[in-house]
Amino acid sequence: MSKFKKKKSGGQPAISTASLPDIVFMLLFFFMVTTVMREVTLKVKVLTPQATEINKLERKSLVSYIYIGEPIPALQSQFGTADRIQLNDAFATKNDIIQFVEAEREQTDPAEVPLMTFSMKVDLESEMGIVTDVKQELRKANALKINYSTRKTDAIID
Amino acid sequence: MARREAPEINAGSMADIAFLLLIFFLVTTTMDVDSGLTRKLPPPIEEEQEDPPEVKQRNVFQVLVNANDDLLVEGEPMLVSNLREEAMKFIIGDPNDESMPEFKMTEVPVFGTIPVSKQIVSLQNDRGTSYEMYIKVQNELVGAYNDVRDDYAMEKFGKTLSQLEKEAENSEKAKQQAAAVKKVYPQRISEAEPKNIGDQ
Predict the structure, then answer these.
(1) What is the CATH number of domain A50-152?
(2) What value does the mean pLDDT of chain A take?
């Protein structure tokens, strides 16, 4: 009576890799959901300064960016090294800002317009002159909620 | 012709395809959380505006930054690392000191009528000041207000202001307390039109 047959002892069976794609897809979807596509190609060099008293920007859909800095090396032969303003994908002058603010407002739900923030991503080597001009234009356009984009640090060094 | 059963498609390369997509998304996306100093600009100046009210010299904490990124605070040269402490001293004030800002009895929720300092921090920079310096100074001034408020909230309620604000989302009491602390030390950072002296 050999009801309990001894199992055939062979080599270990190969581990099934059929679920590997599922795992990878899961990772893929995680990254797709949590990340934001790069919206603009930067034409200016922007390395933001460091600060300690920072707030997080919430509701990314309500944030518009203004970039200020010197053109990237590839464009310096054409545009020089003076600080420039970049709105969306192109260089702009301070006179374009009011129009830019209006265009951004049109894309936003009217109820949420007062919550819009304009985030200034300015290179730390820029001079205040151009930043002040931009701020004055934003005031004229009545876009008063602004944010100076900075990186986090623990202490300010002289 | 005998029909053969279709062989099972090998799914082994599926993982490779998915990996390829994954790497594509990893490369093209950014995950940085945007953060920065949030400030409010003053509303635009109207055409016919009456002269702004006179502010006494003793109520103003004057901060000047020149084109060489040198700091002048109340007429004295200073390093950025000392600015926060000086600003905190000024914001808290001292009723017995003639050179410190005046106090005015003000109605504040939670605390009742208490003296509130008439302090104003005035910041003026040059068009040639570097942005890095400007942010440092802004950061220290905002930090001074935050520290003063935190200390006050700690003394009165045993919690810092940021803790109160976190609790404010589901507690009416914490919300009132946070608002009161802000009202005792209102953040008044006034930015003057920049000078254009050091510009080349």
Answers:
(1) 3.30.420.270
(2) 83
